[in-house]
Specification:
The complex is a heterodimer of chains A (234) and B (319).
Chain A lengths: L1 H12 L2 H23 L7 H19 L4 H6 L2 H5 L5 H31 L6 H26 L5 H16 L1 H6 L4 H10 L1 H9 L5 H27 L1
Helix pairs in contact in A: 1-6, 2-3, 2-6, 3-7, 3-8, 3-11, 6-7, 6-12, 7-8, 7-11, 7-12
Chain B lengths: L1 E10 L2 E11 L4 E5 L6 H9 L6 E6 L2 E2 L4 H6 L1 E4 L11 H11 L6 H11 L15 H13 L5 E5 L7 H15 L3 E5 L3 H7 L2 E6 L2 E7 H10 L2 E7 L2 H10 L3 E11 L2 E8 L4 H9 L4 E8 L3 H9 L14
Parallel strand pairs in B: 3-8, 3-9, 6-7, 7-8
Antiparallel strand pairs in B: 1-2, 1-4, 4-5, 9-10, 11-13, 11-14, 12-13
The chains are: A mainly alpha (234), B alpha/beta (319).
Chain lengths: 234, 319
């Protein structure tokens, strides 16, 4: 398992993908930090985290797009599936490498927090809480991206489909607002990533939100495992 | 030891494998022969655990691959038809990755160096795989299959893309490996199977058409072989005499080759040289030459695949 994790993590940096992801994330994070904190003159970074939600929608498909799609295309999945490693082990290793790559991006917030500490006393609990919240959000998006990647041989199709699904989930709020029946409206709204992540951004840690993101992660990793196992029996 | 019993696999309505059974002992080298789509790769993929069969079992050293896939996979080195190479890695990095993936418990650096030396890729070990030629890629694929010295080696077209010198080296390597370990290889090159394998399975449309020792199958071909004869005398009489000889199934006259002498090709189900000699010794027709036409495995294979010859062995599961 650790061999797959290390290989996948290293592969982000043997191709331009890892650097591009870090550059895009840090660029927008820096812009939002400057506009919404430094320019306004506040140490509250909550608005930065809320704004970054949409950047995460774009960035995570870039991290997950090649994880299974490229293995299928290059036929390297034969090496993985004939090695003495279980399919859940393969799926989890790849997921972990994507999540760690995403966590690397989150270090930009720590740098911004340190930059802020030269001018004022930042609320580190809010920053750390938000980083954890974003890591949970990233974990759910990574699992969805890996699932999509397991369905196709095309890296581009995997990226576009992941982005479309991420965007759709994020639009649940808007969709819910158009539904007149309260029960359905509340149900769809409760599935919204944006609403649940918004709680973290405001510094509110709720166990329900944590469980929600972890459940989404688990469900999509399980689906990925089933997709690969089903292919063996096809 | 490998035991394959009643493997069946269907792809969307098409039967890719139909009740395939065979068994191999340690030190056997088995060649899988068959046209494209015959089911060779499917069989190999099922043995390695890459695919699952609809029914049937695969046992390696008594362990069923479905009951303990991890333990069985540890015992197999597999080179698929397209080598599973990560193009963004160096050869050394890739082999180190595969070494760890296969959970090999040998000293890593020394073992990889030894394998690289065996397949002659030491000189390119620092190069990125995507920059390698097809021949080198194939050898890197073979190297990863050899990692961990697995007791079972499954090689799907192992010499594709290699130059003649490399082909000779790899065949020698496979023969050396096969002295101690079980090797299954598929190839479209019949000469390769003949040169490397001591057992052969000919497979077509998902079924084993015939199987046996390489020598047996070649000998089987010889017993049904053709002979070229040059006989002095009137062709009509000679032709009818030949036809009457017991065992001769077909006579073809190839015309006059020298004055008064005619060339014939006969096909027979057994050795008829003595019968032919005795039959003509009683007449005025002189046999000037009698030469068996050698039948290669290729002829046997083509005959079997085209349906000209029935299965040579009834009990195909006993190899």
């Amino acid at each position: 398992m650790s061999a797959i994790f290390k290989r996948e993590l290293c592969s982000y940096f043997t191709s331009p993908v890892g650097y591009a992801v870090l550059a895009v994330f840090m660029f927008f994070s820096g812009i939002f930090f400057w506009v919404q904190c430094l320019y306004v003159g506040t140490s509250n970074m909550s608005t930065v985290f809320q704004s970054m939600f949409f950047i995460v929608l774009f960035v995570i498909p870039l991290i997950t797009m090649r994880l299974f799609a490229e293995d299928k295309k290059q036929k390297t999945e034969q090496a993985l599936l004939t090695a003495p490693v279980s399919i859940p082990g393969i799926v989890f290793s790849k997921f972990l490498s994507a999540l760690v790559m995403f966590v690397f991006c989150l270090f930009s917030y720590i740098i911004e927090g340190i930059a802020l500490s030269f001018m004022t006393t930042p609320d580190w609990s809010v920053i750390i809480g938000n980083v954890l919240g974003m890591a949970l959000l990233g974990s759910a998006f990574c699992a969805i991206g890996i699932f999509i990647s397991s369905l196709t041989e095309s890296v581009i199709v995997a990226a576009i489909a992941s982005f479309a699904i991420n965007a759709l989930i994020s639009l649940f709020d808007t969709i819910a607002s158009t539904i007149p029946i309260d029960f359905i409206k509340n149900f769809i709204s409760s599935l919204s990533f944006q609403t649940r992540y918004g709680q973290f951004a405001l510094g509110l840690f709720s166990l329900a939100d944590i469980v929600y993101f972890l459940s989404i992660t688990f469900i999509f990793l399980f689906f990925t495992d089933r997709v690969i196992e089903r292919k063996r029996w096809a | 030891m490998i035991k394959v019993k009643n493997l069946t696999k269907t792809y969307v309505g098409t039967k890719a494998l139909d009740n395939i059974s065979f068994s191999l002992n340690d030190g056997d080298i088995l060649g899988f022969l068959g046209p494209n789509g015959a089911g060779k790769s499917t069989t190999m993929n099922i043995i390695t655990g890459y695919l699952s069969a609809d029914s049937g079992t695969v046992e390696i050293d008594g362990t069923d691959i479905l009951e303990d896939p991890t333990a069985v996979k540890r015992k197999i080195g597999y080179l698929p038809e397209i080598p599973p190479l990560y193009n963004d890695m160096t050869v050394q990095g890739y082999l180190e990755f595969m070494f760890k993936l296969k959970k090999v418990r040998l000293p890593m650096k020394e073992h990889i160096a030894k394998i690289c030396n065996m397949v002659k890729i030491t000189g390119v070990s620092g190069r990125i795989i995507k920059h390698l030629s097809k021949g080198y890629r194939q050898r890197v694929g073979l190297a990863q299959a050899l990692l961990g010295e697995p007791p079972v080696l499954i090689l799907d077209e192992p010499t594709v893309g290699l130059d003649p010198q490399q082909i000779i080296e790899i065949r020698k390597l496979i023969r050396d490996i096969g002295k101690k370990r079980t090797v299954i290889l598929s190839s479209h090159l019949l000469s390769e199977i003949q040169a490397v394998c001591d057992k052969i399975i000919i497979i077509n449309k998902g079924k084993i058409i015939t199987s046996g020792l390489t020598d047996e199958l070649t000998a089987t071909g010889k017993s049904t072989a053709r002979m070229e004869l040059v006989i002095e005398g009137r062709p009509q009489q000679v032709y009818s005499m030949l036809e009457r000889i017991d065992g001769i199934t077909k006579v073809i006259e190839h015309g006059e080759c020298e004055k008064g002498c005619y060339e014939y090709v006969i096909e027979s189900g057994r050795d008829v040289r003595r019968l032919v000699f005795r039959a003509f010794a009683k007449t005025d027709y002189n046999i000037l030459s009698m030469k068996p036409v050698s039948v290669s495995l290729e002829d046997t294979y083509l005959d079997i695949i085209s349906g000209k010859t029935e299965g040579v062995k009834d009990n195909v599961s006993d190899i």
